[in-house]
Every structure is written in C-alpha cells, then in structure tokens.
Amino acid sequence: MNILISGANGQIGTELTMHLFQRYGKDSVFPTDVREGGDGFVSDYLDITSRDALYEYIRTHNITRIYHLAAILSGNGEKNPLTAYHVNMEGTLNVLEACREFSLERVFSPSSIAVYGGDAPRQNTPEDSILKPETMYGITKVSSELLFDYYHRRYGCDVRSLRFPGVISYKAEPGGGSTDFAVDIFRQAVDQGHYSCFVREDSRLPFMYMPDVIASIDGLMDAPQGSLRRRTYNVTGFSASAGDFAREVSSLVPGFSIEYAPDFRQAIVDQWPESIDDGPARNDWGWKAEYDLTSLGKDMIQHLKSSSAGGNPNGNSGGHVKEAS
Ligand SMILES: NC(=O)c1ccc[n+]([C@@H]2O[C@H](COP(=O)([O-])OP(=O)(O)OC[C@H]3O[C@@H](n4cnc5c(N)ncnc54)[C@H](O)[C@@H]3O)[C@@H](O)[C@H]2O)c1
C-alpha cells in the first residue's frame, strides 16, 4: 500500500504522518503540502487543487490510498471565503475523481462540527440533524460529505470521513480554526502566563486530543466495509467551555491569568453544538475516546514545558524526516 497525505504539514497532518510512518514504513507514506513543515519535517510540494499534478503524483508513486487533510479552516475561511471554497471543494473533488479513476483502495477525509448551523440541536447533536451552516468552511464540509455519499453510491468508492470537533495538540500550531483557543491557552500559559481568549468564558464546545484523533482515524480506516452504515461519523472526546479550560490551566500553571476579548470567531462557535453524539461510531466500529480535559491538560503542559525548557516536545529523538523525493 502506498499512501498519499495531503495537507501533511498541518496540525493533524504532522502527527498523522509520523504515525503512518511508524505503522506502514517511511517508504510507503508520501506526505505532501503547499508549505514547508516545521521541525525538520519534509514533504513533497503538491497543490491539491491541481488535478493534473495530483494524477501525476499518483502515477509516479503508485499511490493506492489517500488521507486528504488539505483545507482552509473556519477562521481563515471567513477571512477568505473564495479561497476556502476553491481549496476545499476543488481539493475534495480532485481526490474523489482520483479515487474513481485510479480505483484507489480507500480514501479518508475529515469533516467537522462546522457542518452544523444554528438550526441543529446544540446538545448531544446526532449526525442526521439539520445541516445549514453559515460559514463558507461549513458549507464546503457539508458539500464534501454529500460528495462522499455520491461517489460511494454511484462509483463504489470507499471514502470514509469523521466529523471532528476542536482538535487539541502540542506538536504543530493550529491552522486558523475557531477552536484554536483551546490550544493557544496552553501555549500562552507556558510562554507568558497569560492568555487573551477570543471567545467568551461560557463558550462550550466538543473537543478531542490528538492521540484520540489518530486512534479514531485508524479505527475507521481499519473497520471492515460491511460494518460501516454511513460514510461520515461523528467522533468526540469531551465538552468544555473556555472557562473550564482556564480553570484547568490555572491548576497546572501557578499565577496564570486570562481575559476574554471575543472577536469574529465568537459568532462562528455560537452556531456549533456544545456536544455531539458519537453513538453510531461506538456501535459500528468500536470507537471510544481515552482523554478528558484533566488527562489532556496534564499531558499538554508537561510537553509544552519540556519544549520551552529546550527539550523535544515530540517526545522522540529524531523527528520524522523523510528524504525529499
Ligand atoms: N484542527 C481542527 O480542530 C479540525 C477540526 C475539525 C476538522 N478538521 C479538518 O481536518 C483537516 C486537517 O485540519 P488541520 O487542523 O490539520 O488544518 P491545518 O490548517 O493545520 O492544515 C491544513 C494544511 O493544508 C495545507 N493546504 C492548504 N491549501 C492547500 C492546497 N491547495 N494544497 C495542498 N495543501 C494545502 C496547508 O498548508 C496546511 O498545512 C481539515 O480537513 C480540517 O477541516 C480540523
């Protein structure tokens, strides 16, 4: 199996690439992006909006599976809606067409809780709620989910997707989403002892820690086709407000202070669920999150402190540099 990862230098791609290197071997995994990665991370340049470039890459490297992570997220998407539309829709369509044309074995591409708008219930929101998002990012994610269903139904493409909540990690910087405050608060607490939060204290959302994100991707991609009853599943770890994060950080970083200065992203998160139902993922392929806010908080602070003291936040010795090809 030869795996292409798009958006490999992003928040999720950085860690998924390292994980897939370990699981399948570096010679079988091809990280790609349009920007340089940090920390000695090497990937090939591939603009996912170019179908010709994608097809050429697939032929050259005999790609059989794609993890498609390249996207413009909610905050940046509202600053540049046309770019978000172009990258998210063209990228997804190109990957789906590649799946059909090259008879790829399997494709993974994340969706998001941004598919929900103000009409959906905000507590324990199930997959099949009303999906009327008001952001361009959410619109592209709903459209992508519908395309996954279409390509599966019409062409038999094995496309699988997870609706992620806010993703928290310490290795790569978050990429311009509206839940980035839940990562920034830990980073700023360790660096400066203070955080100016861009949403209100009572803003409550679902979240997942990166090890659970990686485990959920493996769980879905390893599931037998027959066990799946839908293309896109909700997955979640825990729900917490900005104030809950502040209290957790205060208990771990003495003297930590916070102020709340909501910006344009407040209106975005106000539309999103406070918690989502991931019952179908639990039932169909055995999904279960490991981390809650307390266990995540301890792990985040420990790694960020070691990083700011000059240690390696990745907790490994040599990074995961692959020779550029
Ligand atoms: N991080 C989260 O909280 C979160 C939550 C829900 C869903 N998701 C989804 O997970 C996926 C990955 O998100 P992330 O947080 O790693 O995002 P990110 O912004 O950190 O990374 C996205 C990567 O895509 C790359 N990219 C942008 N345009 C490209 C193009 N034209 N061609 C190739 N690469 C391009 C960027 O350079 C970046 O490295 C996205 O589909 C996102 O919608 C993320």
UniProtKB/TrEMBL annotation:
Belongs to the NAD(P)-dependent epimerase/dehydratase family. It comes from the Bacteria. Its EC number is 1.1.1.103. GO terms for biological process: L-threonine catabolic process. Residues 304-325 are annotated as: Disordered. Pfam families: Epimerase. Keywords: Oxidoreductase. PANTHER family: L-THREONINE 3-DEHYDROGENASE, L-THREONINE 3-DEHYDROGENASE, MITOCHONDRIAL. One of its GO terms (molecular function) is L-threonine 3-dehydrogenase activity. Gene3D superfamilies: NAD(P)-binding Rossmann-like Domain. InterPro entries: Epimerase_deHydtase, NAD(P)-bd_dom_sf, NAD(P)_epim/dehydratase. Residues 3-235 form the NAD-dependent epimerase/dehydratase domain. This is L-threonine 3-dehydrogenase. It is an enzyme of class 1 (oxidoreductase).
